Inverse folding.
């Protein structure tokens, strides 16, 4: 006789908890993670003469032409990417 998946609880789902404001939240925040904010990133410098890694970082940010603007989540990963190409971009808080 084969065993079915209904006999055991589903451990694949993320555990959710309710905050004081009544909203549900899945799991605790990771260390170094801030509340979700937005950053407006604009490419101000050319990729001519840049390394291949810097070009790939700009593409990862969604930038590949001068004066192109992207609104991105304010996460540690995005901040690290911006730090690597800081001389090619301008950053401000998006509202």
């Amino acid at each position: 006789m084969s065993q079915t998946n209904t006999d055991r609880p589903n451990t694949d789902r993320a555990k959710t908890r309710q905050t004081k404001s009544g909203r549900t939240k899945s799991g605790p925040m990771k260390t170094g993670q801030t509340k979700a904010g937005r950053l407006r990133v604009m490419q101000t410098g050319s990729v001519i003469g840049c390394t291949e890694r810097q070009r790939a970082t700009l593409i990862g940010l969604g930038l590949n032409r001068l004066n192109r603007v992207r609104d991105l989540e304010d996460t540690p990963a995005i901040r690290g990417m911006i730090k690597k190409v800081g001389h090619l971009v301008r950053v401000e808080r998006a509202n």
Remarks:
- The first strand starts at residue 16 and ends at 18.
- The domain at 39-95 is CATH 3.30.1390.20 (Ribosomal Protein L30; Chain: A,).
